[in-house]
C-alpha cells in the first residue's frame, strides 16, 4: 500500500479552500419579501439577478470564496434562509450551509452592499471572469444599485426606512398640514400616485408591487411601488409618498374620506409574508 500523493492532496486542498463559500449574510427573494432596492416588484427584482420569478421564491446567500471573491449563491430552500435570518436577528448563531441540491445558481458579485468581510481571507473583490469556452455564457457580475444620487433605488430605500421607522416619521407630521383629501389633492404627483393605486385595485399589478406586513394593533403596514413613485402607509393612519421627480422629498397624504377605503382595498390584494 502506498501513501497519499502529498502534492496532489495539497493541490486538492487548495482548490477546496478556493471553492468554499464563507457566508456573510442572506436575504429572501420572494413575492412578499425582497430587496426593494432591486426593483418595484418581485419579477423586476428577479430580472435584476437574471432569475425566473418562481412563485415560491429564493434565498440569496452572500459570501466570499477562499480568494476573497464576492459570490451570491441562489438556493430554492426559502425556509432554510428564513430560519437563518430569524436566528441572526435574535442574536443567535446559525450555520447556514445549503445542500448542494438546493443550489439554483452561483452568481459573481453581490447585488447589495456589505460592510463586512470574512476573516482570514483577502478583502472582498470581484471574481476574475472565467476563460473557458463557455465564458460568453457566464452570468453578469452583480453590483449594488447606485444610491449615491436620487433615483428609483434610493427612492425605494427611503420608503423602506420610513416603514421601519414609522413612529419617528409620523410624529413629525402635523395633521393640520397634511394633504387633507387624496381625491382633491392639488399636488399633481401625489394625485397620479393615488390614481395608479386605484388602478392596482381594479387590475392587480405584478407580485410584490403591493406588500402588507404587521403593524401595531389591528393595523397593517403597506408598501406599494410604481413607475417613479413609492408609498408607505398604515391602514389605520396616513400615507407617505416619495417621487423620483422630487429628490429627497417625503409627501404626507392625509386620510380624508378616500384614503381609508383605498388602503383597505390595497391590503386585500397585497402579498403577505408566509
From TrEMBL:
It comes from Streptomyces agglomeratus. Residues 118-153 are annotated as: Disordered. This is Integral membrane protein.
Amino acid at each position: 500500500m502506498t501513501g497519499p500523493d502529498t502534492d496532489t492532496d495539497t493541490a486538492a486542498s487548495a482548490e477546496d479552500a478556493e471553492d468554499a463559500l464563507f457566508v456573510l449574510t442572506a436575504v429572501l427573494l420572494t413575492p412578499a419579501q425582497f430587496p426593494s432596492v432591486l426593483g418595484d416588484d418581485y419579477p423586476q427584482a428577479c430580472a435584476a439577478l437574471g432569475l425566473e420569478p418562481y412563485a415560491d421564491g429564493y434565498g440569496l446567500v452572500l459570501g466570499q470564496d477562499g480568494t476573497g471573491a464576492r459570490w451570491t449563491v441562489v438556493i430554492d430552500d426559502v425556509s432554510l434562509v428564513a430560519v437563518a435570518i430569524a436566528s441572526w436577528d435574535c442574536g443567535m448563531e446559525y450555520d447556514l450551509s445549503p445542500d448542494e441540491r438546493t443550489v439554483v445558481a452561483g452568481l459573481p458579485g453581490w447585488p447589495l452592499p456589505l460592510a463586512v468581510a470574512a476573516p482570514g481571507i483577502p478583502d472582498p473583490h470581484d471574481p476574475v471572469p472565467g476563460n473557458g469556452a463557455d465564458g460568453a455564457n457566464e452570468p453578469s457580475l452583480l453590483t449594488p444599485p447606485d444610491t449615491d444620487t436620487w433615483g428609483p433605488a434610493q427612492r425605494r430605500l427611503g420608503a423602506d426606512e420610513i416603514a421601519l421607522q414609522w413612529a419617528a416619521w409620523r410624529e413629525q407630521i402635523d395633521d393640520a398640514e397634511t394633504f387633507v383629501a387624496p381625491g382633491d389633492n392639488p399636488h399633481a404627483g401625489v394625485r397620479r400616485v393615488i390614481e395608479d393605486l386605484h388602478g392596482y385595485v381594479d387590475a392587480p399589478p405584478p407580485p410584490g408591487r403591493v406588500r402588507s406586513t404587521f403593524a401595531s394593533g389591528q393595523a397593517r403596514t403597506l408598501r406599494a411601488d410604481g413607475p417613479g413613485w413609492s408609498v408607505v402607509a398604515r391602514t389605520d393612519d396616513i400615507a407617505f409618498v416619495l417621487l423620483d421627480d422630487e429628490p429627497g422629498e417625503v409627501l404626507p397624504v392625509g386620510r380624508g374620506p378616500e384614503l381609508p377605503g383605498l388602503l383597505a382595498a390595497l391590503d386585500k390584494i397585497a402579498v403577505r409574508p408566509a
